[in-house]
C-alpha cells in the first residue's frame, strides 16, 4: 500500500553553510522552521531590491517510522530555484526549476540514523529561469515536502515528477460520447484500470467509452470523472479528469463544448503579504473564492507552474486556465535546456487537469532580447515539445507591447496574445483599441488575445481629477472602464486577463506610496481590500450575486462643493443624489462617470 507522510515540522534552517557536512554539523544552531517556508517573506516585499539571494539549507532527521517501507521516495513540491538533496551526507539529486514537483528515491541509502539535508538556491545564474522579471524570486522549500512509501511493484514516481497516470478524453459532441484513453507507468506485469464503473486489466493502457457523457462545462457545470489504476501489490493512483472540447476562432473567439464562451478573467501570482509564496491550501482556497466572487471564468497562472492544489481548485470551479513556464523577459542562450525541462515537467504533471486549455511558451521574452535565430529556435523546440507531448491543447505566447505584429516569432505558437499598457506606462487608452483593430484587420485569420493590461492604484491615493500615472483608485477605475468597453466590442479576442487580480511583491519597485509592491491588483496584497475596479468587473461578470458598490468610499477629504457619486452594480439602478450629477444606467448595469466632454447629464433622466 502507498503511504504519504508530510514532512512539515522538525526542520532546521541555515542561511549559510559551505558544504553539506558543515550544514549538518551546524544544524542544531539553526532556526527551527515548518514547511512551507521561504526566507524572503519579509525582505522580498519591503523594497530596495536587496532581498537575500543565495544558498540556504534545510536539515531534518527522519524517524524510524518515517523511514519504513519497501521503497521510500522523497517528494519536493517546490524548491526555488535549484535544489540538491542529500541523505547521510551523500548527494542523491539535483533539480533546476523552482515551480515543479521532483522526487528522489532514498531506499538504497537508508541507515539506522538518517539525516536529510536539502540545499536550495535562488542565486543569480544564466541557466535557470526566471532571472529578470517584475516580481520577487522567493527562495525556499515553499511547498510541501513528503515521504512516499510504496511496495516493490509500484507506479513510476521519478520521471519528471509524473503522477504515474495519464488520461486523455476525446469528446464527440454530436453523439455525446467520450472516448477515454488511460495510460500508466509501473514495474508490474499488469494493472487494473477503472473509469466510470468499468474495470479493465491491461499491461499499461486501456480505452473506455462513456455514453451520454457529462461534460466539464466551465463555471456552469465543472463535472469531473475519476480514473483509478491499481496494481496487485496494492499500489494505487488516480486522476480526476473532465470531458470537454476547446477551440478558437479568429472571428468569434474561444469556444467551449461547441458554443461561444468568451474568456474574461485575471492573472494571479502565488504570493501573499507577510507569507511570500509559502502558501497553505487555505490561502489557495481563499484566492479561488475571490476569483469566483469576481465572476471571472479564466485565469492566467503567471509566470510559472502553480501548486497542484490550485489547479485542482480550477478544475473544481470550472476556471479555464492558461498555464506557462517562467521563460520571461530575457532570453539566456545557456538556458535552453531549462526551458525544455520546465515545459516537460509542467505538461507531465498538469496534463490531467481539464481546466488547462493552453500551454504558454514565454512571456515578454523580447523585452530585453532581440528576435534572433537562437530565440526563435528555442521557441520552435518548445512548441514542438508541447505538441508532441499533448496534441489536444493549443500553444500561445504573451508578447510585449513593442513587438512588431509581423515579427516571425508570432508564427510559432498556435495562437497569440499581447501585453499592452497604453494609458498607463505610455500613450493613451484609445491606442489599445487601435492596436487590436489594426492587428485584426491585417491578420483576420489569426487568433489574438489580451494577456495583460492594468494600472497601479494605492487605495490611499485619491483624486477628483484623476490622471495617468497618479496611482489613484479613481484613475485605475477609469482605465478599466475603458478596457472593459474595448473588450466587449471585440468578441474575437480569444481571452483577456487583467494584470493582476492581487497586488504582488516586486522588491525592485518603490512607487505609488509603497515599497516592493506592484499595485496593479484589483485586490490588495493582503486580500483585505477590494479596490473600486474590482467591483467594475464584478458588475460585468458576476451574474449570480446581486450587489451595489459605491465608489470612492475611501476618498474622505474632498474639497469640492459637489461630489460625484459613481455606482457599480450588476442590477439595474435608479439613482438620485441631491448633490451629485446623475446619469442613466447602461444596460449591463455598470454606471459610468461623467462624459469625457465634461457636460453634465440630463437630470430629467434621473428618477
Kindly list the characteristics that best describe this protein.
607 residues; alpha+beta; Jelly Rolls; Immunoglobulin-like; eight-stranded parallel barrel; six-stranded antiparallel sheet; 8 helices; globular; disordered C terminus
Description:
The chain has 607 residues and is α+β, with helices and mostly antiparallel strands. The strands form 9 sheets. An 8-stranded parallel barrel has the order 23-24-25-26-27-28-29-30, surrounded by 4 helices. α2 packs parallel to α3. Residues 576-607 have low confidence and may be disordered.
Give a quick precis of the structure.
The protein is of the alpha+beta class. The N and C termini lie far apart (70 Å).
The first-to-last residue Cα distance is: 70 Å
What's the β-strand tally?
Answer: 34
Mean pLDDT: 94
CATH topology of one domain: Jelly Rolls
Strand order of the largest sheet: 23-24-25-26-27-28-29-30
Unreliable parts: 576-607
List the helices and strands and how they pair.
Blueprint: E1 3-6, E2 11-14, H1 20-26, E3 31-33, E4 55-62, E5 71-76, E6 82-87, E7 90-96, E8 102-105, E9 114-121, E10 145-150, E11 165-172, E12 177-184, E13 191-195, E14 198-202, E15 205-210, E16 216-217, E17 221-222, E18 225-230, E19 236-241, E20 246-249, E21 253-256, E22 259-260, E23 263-268, H2 281-294, E24 298-301, H3 308-317, E25 320-324, H4 336-350, E26 356-363, H5 373-389, E27 394-400, E28 416-419, H6 430-442, E29 448-452, H7 473-488, E30 493-498, E31 504-511, E32 514-518, H8 532-541, E33 548-550, E34 567-569
Parallel strand pairs: 23-24, 23-30, 24-25, 25-26, 26-27, 27-28, 28-29, 29-30
Antiparallel strand pairs: 1-10, 2-3, 2-4, 4-9, 5-8, 5-10, 6-7, 6-9, 11-12, 12-15, 13-14, 13-18, 16-17, 18-19, 20-21, 21-22, 31-32, 33-34
Helix pairs in contact: 2-3, 4-5, 7-8
Amino acid at each position: 500500500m502507498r503511504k504519504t507522510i508530510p514532512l512539515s515540522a522538525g526542520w532546521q534552517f541555515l542561511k549559510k553553510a559551505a558544504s553539506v557536512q558543515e550544514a549538518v554539523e551546524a544544524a542544531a544552531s539553526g532556526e527551527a522552521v515548518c514547511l512551507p517556508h521561504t526566507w524572503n517573506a519579509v525582505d522580498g516585499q519591503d523594497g530596495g531590491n536587496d532581498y537575500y539571494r543565495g544558498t540556504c539549507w534545510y536539515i531534518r532527521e527522519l524517524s524510524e517510522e518515517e523511514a519504513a517501507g519497501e521503497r521510500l521516495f522523497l517528494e519536493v513540491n517546490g524548491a526555488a530555484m535549484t535544489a540538491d538533496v542529500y541523505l547521510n551526507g551523500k548527494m542523491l539529486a539535483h533539480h533546476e526549476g523552482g515551480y515543479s514537483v521532483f522526487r528522489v528515491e532514498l531506499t538504497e541509502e537508508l541507515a539506522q540514523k538518517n539525516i536529510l539535508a536539502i540545499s536550495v538556491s535562488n542565486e543569480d545564474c544564466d541557466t535557470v529561469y526566471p532571472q529578470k522579471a517584475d516580481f520577487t524570486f522567493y527562495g525556499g522549500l515553499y511547498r510541501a515536502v513528503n515521504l512516499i512509501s510504496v511496495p516493490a511493484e509500484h507506479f513510476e514516481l521519478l520521471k519528471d515528477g509524473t503522477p504515474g497516470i495519464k488520461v486523455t478524453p476525446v469528446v464527440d459532441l454530436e453523439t455525446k460520447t467520450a472516448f477515454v484513453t488511460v495510460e500508466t507507468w509501473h514495474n508490474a506485469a499488469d494493472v487494473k484500470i477503472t473509469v466510470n464503473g468499468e474495470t479493465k486489466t491491461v499491461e499499461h493502457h486501456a480505452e473506455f467509452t462513456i455514453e451520454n457523457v457529462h461534460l466539464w462545462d466551465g463555471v456552469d457545470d465543472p463535472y469531473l470523472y475519476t480514473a483509478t489504476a491499481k496494481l496487485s501489490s496494492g499500489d494505487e493512483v488516480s486522476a480526476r479528469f473532465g470531458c470537454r472540447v476547446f477551440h478558437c476562432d479568429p472571428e468569434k473567439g474561444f469556444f467551449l463544448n461547441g458554443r461561444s464562451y468568451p474568456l474574461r478573467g485575471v492573472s494571479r501570482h502565488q504570493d501573499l503579504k507577510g507569507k511570500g509564496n509559502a502558501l497553505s491550501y487555505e490561502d489557495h482556497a481563499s484566492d479561488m473564492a475571490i476569483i469566483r466572487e469576481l465572476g471571472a471564468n479564466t485565469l492566467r497562472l503567471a509566470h510559472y507552474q502553480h501548486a497542484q492544489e490550485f489547479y485542482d481548485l480550477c478544475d473544481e470551479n470550472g476556471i479555464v486556465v492558461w498555464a506557462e513556464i517562467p521563460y520571461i523577459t530575457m532570453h539566456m542562450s545557456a538556458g535552453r535546456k531549462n526551458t525544455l525541462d520546465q515545459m516537460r515537467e509542467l505538461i507531465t504533471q498538469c496534463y490531467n487537469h481539464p481546466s488547462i486549455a493552453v500551454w504558454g511558451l514565454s512571456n515578454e521574452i523580447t523585452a530585453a532580447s532581440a528576435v534572433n535565430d537562437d530565440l526563435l529556435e528555442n521557441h520552435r523546440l518548445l512548441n514542438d515539445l508541447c505538441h508532441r507531448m499533448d496534441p489536444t491543447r493549443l500553444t500561445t505566447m504573451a508578447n510585449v507591447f513593442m513587438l512588431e505584429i509581423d515579427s516571425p516569432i508570432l508564427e510559432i505558437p498556435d495562437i497569440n496574445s499581447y501585453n499592452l499598457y497604453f494609458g498607463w506606462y505610455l500613450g493613451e487608452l484609445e491606442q489599445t483599441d487601435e492596436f487590436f483593430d489594426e492587428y485584426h484587420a491585417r491578420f483576420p485569420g489569426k487568433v489574438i488575445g489580451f494577456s495583460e493590461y492594468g494600472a497601479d492604484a494605492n487605495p490611499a491615493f485619491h483624486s477628483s481629477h484623476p490622471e495617468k500615472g497618479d496611482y489613484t483608485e479613481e484613475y485605475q477605475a477609469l482605465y478599466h472602464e475603458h478596457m472593459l468597453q474595448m473588450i466587449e466590442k471585440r468578441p474575437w479576442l480569444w481571452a483577456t486577463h487583467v494584470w493582476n487580480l492581487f497586488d504582488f511583491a516586486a522588491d525592485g519597485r518603490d512607487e505609488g506610496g509603497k515599497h516592493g509592491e506592484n499595485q496593479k491588483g484589483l485586490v490588495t496584497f493582503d486580500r483585505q481590500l477590494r479596490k473600486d475596479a474590482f467591483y467594475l468587473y464584478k458588475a460585468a461578470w458576476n451574474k449570480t450575486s446581486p450587489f451595489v458598490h459605491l465608489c470612492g468610499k475611501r476618498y474622505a477629504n474632498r474639497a469640492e462643493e459637489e461630489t460625484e457619486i459613481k455606482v457599480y452594480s450588476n442590477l439595474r439602478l435608479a439613482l438620485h443624489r441631491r448633490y451629485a450629477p446623475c446619469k442613466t444606467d447602461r444596460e449591463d448595469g455598470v454606471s459610468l462617470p461623467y462624459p469625457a466632454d465634461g457636460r453634465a447629464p440630463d437630470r430629467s433622466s434621473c428618477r
